[in-house]
Amino acid sequence: MAEKQKEKKIRSDIVRDSLYTFGTNIIGTILGLVSSIFVLHRINPKIRGYYSELQTWGGGFNTILGLSIASAAIYFVAHYRTENSKGALKRFTIITFAIIAVGSTAVLVSLRDSRLFNTTPASYLVAILVYALLSLLQNVVIGALRGQNKFKMFNIITLTQRILATMLAIFIAFRPAAGVWIWCTNAISFAAIIMAIYGVHRWNGPEPAPAPENDHRVKTSSMVTYSLKSHVSNVLNYLNSNLGNFIVQGNYGISSLGVFSTALTIAQQLWLLPDAVSQVILSRVAAMSDQKSKLHLTLLSTKIVAVVTTIASLLVLWAAYLFIPWLFPMYVGVLPLLSYLIVGTIVISYAKVLGNSIAAYGRPELNVLPNTLGFAVNCIVSFTCIPYLHIQGVALATSLSMVSQGISCMVIFCKYSHTPFYRLLVPNREELSSLRRAFRG
After folding, report:
1. Torsion angle defined by CA atoms of residues 126, 128, 133 and 139, in that order, rounded to the nearest 10 degrees
2. Of 51, 106, 173, 244, which residue is most buried, by most CB within 10 angstroms?
3. Nearest Cα to 48, choosing from 338, 317, 333, 398?
4. What is the three-class DSSP state of 417?
């Protein structure tokens, strides 16, 4: 009886945390829309392109060289608790910080005179390096915060960061300067890190104790092993998501990158609910012991996410065609790109929830295949279609890669969990009843 009450509480906590995180993301999107109204109306695509360059390359260095340390932070803090994990996490962070610092510097110096960066000021390249290092530190402390299931503090930090970013974007709209935009973005990331460190160390009452079998110090080698299992799929996912940005920047210039990245950013706003649920489900499911309950929560979450994302996607596409030509004539090229990207955005919502659920089972390596397939499809379609469709061919390749990634992730989850495929698509009576009880409780 006590076990059932505990599992029921966990399910209610997941619904609560998912709703709060979803609400935070909704507010963040509204703030993003406000800033976009100013930015897209007043800032030319070249300045927008430099800002996208910061995020794409800085985020890329963190993703590729950071060894997916954030995944390990979430899993080990959730599973073994903070006291048992902090030593290994600190050592692992120092190692990855050094790898990113050296590796990023080497890449940027070697590509300085290439077509990618020959028009980029040197100070912006330094900013990319700083952005990568700050992204690493932020991911580590935010990962630890999520592992502790402190989603209230997580949402406060997320919302504060969005508010500051919106205020900065509005300022830049009236005083266009790529350098100010780039360096102030780094300053906002630093502020988020300070807030997250405070949140990790703050407890209202004693820290929850781990299960007896998990009450021992985590070895750095164990954390590295888990991270490397996640790392291949995370790197492939990054390359799959950003290959289009690299192709556009290299072949069509910084202004075209501003247009393409804007279309991709609009499409990614539709990941509000998938991101909210996936952020919560990894740490919560990792802490659960009953396999049936894990499966039940995953299936129910996936169906809700898919339905909401589909409806939101159609509404966003309609709104884009209605308002962009009128409000943002410099970015009208976004519309045909967005039409392609929307399809992939809907299907990838499945992979977001199912991929994190698989990682919560302790099997992150199973996510390698969907990401490998997605990246392969992206490369093949890009080289096939770009000569004929140009930038629209890049958008088509990106969309098809997300479709293949989502479908393959669904197949792998069904095979691993011995679940019929239709159960990912059609809710049963038990799930509908559980949903009603969860929202009431």
Report:
1. 160
2. 244
3. 333
4. helix
Here the tokens at position 43 are: 């800032």
Angle at the Cα of 81 from the Cα atoms of 133 and 227, rounded to 5 degrees: 45
pLDDT per position as a tens digit, 240-292: 777 888 888 777 777 787 788 888 888 877 776 677 676 666 666 655 656 67
Q: What was the pLDDT predicted at 282?
A: 60
Residue 227: pLDDT over 70: yes
AA letter at 81: R
* CB under 8 A, 24+ apart: contacts of 310-316: 310/346, 312/270, 312/272, 312/273, 313/270, 313/342, 313/345, 313/346, 314/342, 316/266, 316/269, 316/270, 316/342
Residue 190: both structure tokens together? 């630093």
In terms of pLDDT, which residue wins out, 151 or 59? 59
Q: Is 367 helix (H, G, I), strand (E, B) or coil?
A: helix
Band of pLDDT at residue 428, cut at 50, 70 and 90? low
In angstroms, rounded to a whole number, what is the distance separating the alpha carbons of residues 209 and 362? 20
Question: For the residues 25-52, what does the mean pLDDT come to?
Answer: 71
Max avg pLDDT among 51-55, 66-70, 137-141, 435-439: 137-141
Question: How many domains does the chain fold into?
Answer: 1
**DSSP codes, 373-387:** HHHHHHHHHHHHHHH
Determine which helix (DSSP H) or strand (DSSP E) holds 372, and give its type and residue range: helix 368-389
Give the phi and the psi of residue 189 in degrees, each rounded to 5. Answer: -60, -40
pLDDT at position 55 over 60: yes
Name which of 51, 49, 58 is nearest 108 in CA terms.
58
Tokens linked to 347: 């299907």
Q: What are phi and psi of 19, to 5 degrees?
A: -65, -45
Tokens 């997320």 — which residue?
A: 158
CB-neighbour burial class of residue 77 (10 A; exposed 0-12, middle 13-18, buried 19+): buried
Token pair listed for 11: 């399910």
Convert 147-159 into a string of H (helix), E (strand) and C (coil): HCCCHHHHHHHHH
Residue 328 is part of which domain span? 2-440
Report in angstroms the alpha-carbon separations of 128 from 51, 100, 132, 176.
Answer: 10, 11, 6, 19
pLDDT for 9 equals: 46
Task: Return the structure tokens found at 225.
Answer: 């092993």
CA angle 161, 71, 31 (to 5 degrees): 20
What pLDDT does 270 receive?
A: 77
Sign of the Cα pseudo-torsion (79, 80, 83, 87, in order): negative
Pull the structure tokens for residue 387. Answer: 């000569």
* Angle in degrees, 0-180, between the axes of helices 254-268 and 220-252, rounded to the nearest 10: 130
- Predicted confidence band of residue 79 (pLDDT cuts 50, 70, 90): confident
